[in-house]
Design goal:
By secondary structure, this protein is an alpha+beta fold. Helix content is 48%, strand content 9%. The chain starts with 16 loop residues before the first helix and ends in a 15-residue tail after the last helix.
Length: 234
């Protein structure tokens, strides 16, 4: 790790006090934190009332992409950017405005201030996302695995991608939840759940532990003596 030489007192980036008191304590995603801070920096360099950055500009920003790659060498930077933005939009620290410009859709991202909310609401052809009653965006398969099961390995990446193509997102979330509830946090267990649902139907194949313990095998028959019980039929 290269040592940092220290900060200057010039070109400081202003951050609202609420970021430190109401937002920062709640952020657990490195992608969300990096994307949010980068957006504050990007808009601080702009002039005008509705300071905003579009998706293409963020994706082309090498310093941001380098920071996102440091989170995971196995996940595409664009996916981490999308995840970070989605979490910030869900938290309402960032506003997402989609507008039609020159025959194409442009995705704008703005810090959630009163002025920016007013701009978004009156901007022609725009819609503000997400609506308060919308469900939060579902995490991608890699984020879902890392947040609930463990770190990704190179061997797992292709398996997870294949599962993401093969199974509905709701199945993946439910299978991961079942693994967490059973305290069996590994991909093999999750894959067996998905395969069973695919073969038998999800509703007709309720979750059960893959390592169920049948006590009757050990309290009767030839093993009974070891458990203080004798079965006279054997």
């Amino acid at each position: 790790m290269t040592a940092f030489d220290g900060f200057s007192t010039e070109n400081l980036v202003p951050l609202p006090a609420e970021f430190f008191t109401a937002v920062l304590p709640c952020i657990s995603s490195a992608a969300e934190l990096k994307v949010t801070l980068h957006l504050f920096w990007a808009v601080s360099r702009q002039r005008g009332r509705a300071k905003r950055v579009d998706w293409e500009t963020l994706l082309a920003d090498e310093s941001l992409i380098q920071g996102l790659r440091a989170i995971s060498a196995l996940r595409p930077a664009a996916e981490l950017l999308e995840e970070g933005l989605a979490r910030a939009v869900e938290r309402r620290t960032i506003l997402h405005v989609v507008s039609a410009e020159a025959g194409r859709a442009v995705n704008w991202y703005l810090v959630n201030t009163a002025a920016n909310r007013a701009w978004a609401e009156r901007h022609n052809g725009a819609r503000l996302e997400p609506a308060p009653d919308q469900a939060p965006p579902a995490p991608g398969i890699f984020a879902l695995y890392e947040q609930n099961i463990g770190l990704l390995t190179p061997m797992l990446v292709e398996e997870l991608r294949e599962a993401d193509r093969k199974y509905p997102a709701a199945w993946l979330e439910d299978a991961v939840r079942a693994a967490v509830e059973a305290n069996i946090r590994n991909w093999r267990y999750i894959r067996r759940i998905l395969e069973r649902w695919e073969a038998d139907g999800k509703e007709s194949a309720p979750h059960r532990s893959e390592q169920s313990f049948d006590l009757s095998k050990y309290t009767s028959g030839k093993y009974a003596a070891f458990f203080g019980r004798t079965d006279t039929n054997d």
